[in-house]
Amino acid sequence: MMRSFILMIGLSLLIVGCQPMPDVEALNQNLIVQTDYDASVSFNDYTTYTLTLDTLGLISNNSKDTLQLGPYAKDITAKIKANMDARGYIYVDKNQNPDLGFVAFIVNDFKVYQTISYPSYGGGYYSSYYGYYYPRVNTYASNSAALILELVDLNKKTSQNQFKLIWTCYIGDIVSSVDPFQKSVEAVDQAFVQSSIIGR
Question: What pTM, to 2 d.p., does this model score?
Answer without folding.
Answer: 0.69
